[in-house]
Structures are given as structure tokens and as C-alpha cells.
Amino acid sequence: MRDVLLACPGGSLALPPKTLVLVDRKDGGNLVVHPPRDVWERSELNATELSAWAALVAAAGRAMIDTLPQLDGGCINYWEAGNWALNVAADPPGPKTAKTHRRVHMHLLGRSPHAASAAWRWGEAPAFPDFANRFRWAATFERLTPAECWAIVERTRHLLVSRYAMPERDVMAGGRCDACGYPTAPGASSLCGECAHPG
Questions:
Q1: pLDDT tier at 1 (50, 70, 90 boundaries)?
Q2: Are 69 and 75 in contact, with CB atoms under 8 Å apart?
Q3: Which residues lie closer than 8 Å to 76 by C-beta, 6 or more apart?
Q4: In angstroms, rounded to a whole number, what is the distance separating the alpha carbons of residues 118 and 162?
Q5: Into how many domains does the chain fold?
Q6: Which of 1, 29, 172, 188 is the most buried (most CB within 10 A)?
Q7: Rounded distance between C-alpha atoms, residue 50 and residue 11, angstroms
Q8: What angle do helix axes 146-162 and 47-67 make, rounded to 10 degrees?
């Protein structure tokens, strides 16, 4: 289940799954931006959807730079993903076509000049694992904290309204999860998706 932090006409800003964080929070952090509807290729979005998604991606990336001390002097890599879903071992097992199985989403990958992980060395391209090794590779990476996520959500909301002219009423965030403190999806109960459906 997606752990949505914020939603707007451009889609949703979410945490990656706990088991598949691509960048440790100390090395810059990882968030995911989903477009307003599931598509296999970005060209499937209409002009309005694509513009709104691009605004959300840009605002969330800038919010990470503006609020995370670990990104001082750093940047964001914007990585459009969906390739692991096409692996022959991915569910359902067997050969797959992109149009049938790929779902576009954008990873925001914080790049810190002081990154400790060999996969995220400053001045080098990221080093992603093969599909079969992805969980072992990500096992030691931690998500951004609740406080970091709240700061990013508030800054993203501000940027969407002030810089990208998105109506404030259309930029929705939920409350605080009673169990873990992370932001909840707009309209959700007092628990985030993960705490409401553990395991």
C-alpha cells in the first residue's frame, strides 16, 4: 500500500516501501511521486495531467533540498522507474510487456556530498542492484523521519500554491498517524496506510 503524504491534481507524494528504500535518509533520502492515474508510459498522460505531475515532482524535489540538512550543497536525481515490475521473476512470474505491467512513478533520490553508501558516492552515477538482490541491497537504508516528511509536505504545499499556481484547496495533506507520527493520506483515518494494514 502506498504511504501517501500529500495529494493534488498532479498525483501523490509518497514514502517508498520500508523494505525498498533506495537512498538512506542520511545520504539524502528517497520519496516517490505517482502521477494522477496509473499509466505505463508518461506520454499516456494528457497535457493537463502531465503539467500537474511535473509541478508536483519539481515542488517535492525542491522541498527536499530546502528542508533536509543532509542535502546542503547537494541535489536531487529524478528517476522515472517501473523496470523491476518487468522482471521475469516479478509477480506474476513470467515474461511481461511494458504496456501491460509497467506503472510509471518518479523516485526523488537525494544526493548528498557526504553520502556514506558506495551506491550513492558523490559525483558518481547511482549503482542499482539487480532485481533479485534489491531487498538485501536496501535492507540497511532508512526512510526519512516523520519530522523530515512533515517539513517536506509543508514546503511542497507552499511551492505548489505560490510557484506553480495550484489552487490551495486542491493541495491536500492528511493528519498525523496516531501510531508512527508520519503524515497520513488525505481523507484517511488517524492511521497511515502502513499502520492501518500492518504486514
A1: very low
A2: no
A3: 28, 61, 64, 65, 108, 109, 110, 111
A4: 38
A5: 1
A6: 29
A7: 10
A8: 130
